[in-house]
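Notes from the 1:1 (GR / supervisor)

We went over the backlog. Supervisor wanted to see one worked example end to end before approving the batch request, so GR pasted a single chain during the call. The sequence is below; no edits were made to it. Supervisor asked that the structure be written out right there so they could see what the output format looks like.
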Amino acid sequence: MGIWSRKPLSRLQNEASEDGEHSLRRSLTASNLVLLGIGAIIGAGIFVLTGTAAAEHAGPAIVISFVLAGFCCLFAGLCYAEFAAMIPIAGSAYTYGYATLGELFAWIIGWDLILEYLVSASAVAVGWSGYVVAFLHRIGIDLPANLTNAPYVVEGTGSLVATGAILNLPAVLLCVLLTVLLVIGIRESAAVNNMIVYAKLLVVVLVICFGASYIDTANWSPFIPEPTGKPGEFGWGGITAGAGVIFFAYIGFDAVSTAAQEAKNPQRDLPIGILGSLAVCTVLYILMALVMTGIAPYSELNVPHPVDVAVSKAGPALSWLAMIVDIGAIAGLASVVLVMIMAQPRIFYAMARDGLMPPAFAKVHPRFKTPYVATIITGVVAAVLAGLFPIDILGHLVSIGTLFAFIIVCAGVLVLRKSDPDAPRSFRTPWVPWIPLLGILSCGYLMWGLGAETWMRLVIWMALGFAIYFLYGKSHSRLSAEK
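Structure output shown during the call:
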């Protein structure tokens, strides 16, 4: 069997019910999971990327881009929900791939998920640092530039160039602080995340409610700007390109499934957490995009603080809201980093229990019941990346990695419906095979639009992953050793 070995559903379900010193603590409710998903989704997308995508690609029609990207996520989310309810253990798409497509595909998707969680945690930490620096400047405190910027930037040729800065210290400190919090416990981390999510949801709702009164409908005309002739610049091509850019805004709902082994009632609560967080965030994204492009001309939103710019356009009447927006962005981006650093160790944990990663990654703290070794390693690597590199180096890799994970999950539902049609499913993806097929096609289409350079970087990353699998994972696989 070897690399094509599949992990039986019965075994996965037994692992889900295990209890002991090496098991994770089940303490998350449905509301915790919904807020966990919202915490991961609402962040860089709504506070940064909305303005960039509107100014460079779609104009006011960025609203349509959000709808397109939301449908891609809906198709994938329905498939995620079926798997998460069937196989409620840590591992997310990695585990689902192991059950349906075999060990090699499981490794590919597990390695791929590192791009989604680890790299995006670093990228968002850099964005958080930018908002913190701007907020402190607003209140008269200026931090040294050489301690708040990346020492390297990327030139147009793709090569790294030194900036003269030493380290992005705020981004490093955030990663370290959240790592300590996550080692202490998932319950405590969830409580902190809940508070942050409530705060940033309040900010988003305030912007939508108060900003709606200052919308100038002239800013929506033309709603779909005429294409410039360059690929991805306005017109319907720009709407599609915008969907690819803002797709980064949607990653995170699948982080809910990585906490499956810590959910109190996973069969019921995981579908609620996945689909509930996705629905809430899609509605908020659309409303926020309408308000932002209605208050300010879309051409002026290509800045690191587009929400702040839009609010400032309303004049002195909303000046009080600008400070609140900055605070909300700081809280919002911090909660995204929290969820990303929480999710990645649980992928490592699942892979290590299967023998595909060193056993240290599966160690659970005897007191806190968290995968502390994997969490510390994840946090340290995220801190190093956040401290040294700018936000845009691997941004597209995060999106292509996420889209690839979604395709694997959608394909897995099709395979499992054929190979094990009678398996108990507390949640069933509707309209199979059409929903999974639409998920595969739509995510594949967005992947195709991410460009040759991004595909090349993905190929290099996956080649490194294959090397590790064949040099270590294949020979240490517990499943292969038992056959």
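Supervisor's comment: The chain has a mean pLDDT of 83.
Batch request approved.
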